[in-house]
Amino acid sequence: MTTYGYARTSTVEQVAGLADQVAKLKEAGCTDQSIYKEQISSVKMADRAEFAKVLAKLTKGDVLVFTSLSRVARSMIHMIEIEAAVAAVGASMRILDMAVDTSTPQGRLTFNLFSSIAQFERENMLERQKVGIAAAKAKGKYTGRAPTAQKKTAQVLAMHAKGNTKQEIAGACGIGIASVYRILKTAF
User: Fold this and answer.
1) 145 phi, psi to nearest 5 deg
2) 92 classed as catalytic
């Protein structure tokens, strides 16, 4: 039985948030070698290479630990799919901020209840965000988020030309691996 941890932040700027998650995972019994971490937006959930790696490692009796539902999924359906995939191999999940352990019937019930509440909160937040953006646009004050990865195109291309891997490029440039792929796709 191995206890694996998963930590995720939405941006590379969230260094303290990632470090906090890693510290909590270590307190929960994860080792440096069993913690998978990445910095990628929830919008790009399908591009989470490290999460895919940890899911592929799980075997019967293993435990996947994360600090919060929001670090793993952005919808109840997605979270339930993840829990089903984990359970299918005989592993379980622990969610630290909710003290949920899906290895028990009570833990699975609590998990399902909290997943529904998290989905409700997420949908409410997105609705408030839409209203705020619409109001800012009406006042001419909304310009959107400044693109960050595209500013590093020259650095990405230079490192790629030197033979660096996409993961190395992403780490050195402080951008997500999906951004590296996007820049290279546009360039070639």
Assistant:
1) -80, 135
2) no
Phi, psi dihedral angles at 136 (to 5 degrees): -65, -40
Question: Coil, strand, or helix at residue 74?
Answer: coil
Looking at the whole model, is its pTM more than 0.70? no
- Dist CA 179 CA 113 (whole Å): 35
Residue among 10, 68, 70, 75 flagged as catalytic: 10
CATH hierarchy code of domain 3-118: 3.40.50.1390
Task: List, for residues 30-81, the tens digit of each pLDDT value.
Answer: 999 999 999 887 666 567 889 999 999 999 999 999 998 888 887 777 888 8
**Integer CA distances (angstroms), 147 to 138, 143, 153, in order:** 22, 11, 11
**Alpha carbons 38 and 132: distance in angstroms, whole number:** 29
Residue range 80-95: average pLDDT?
92
Phi first, then psi: what are they for 185, rounded to 5°? Answer: -65, -40
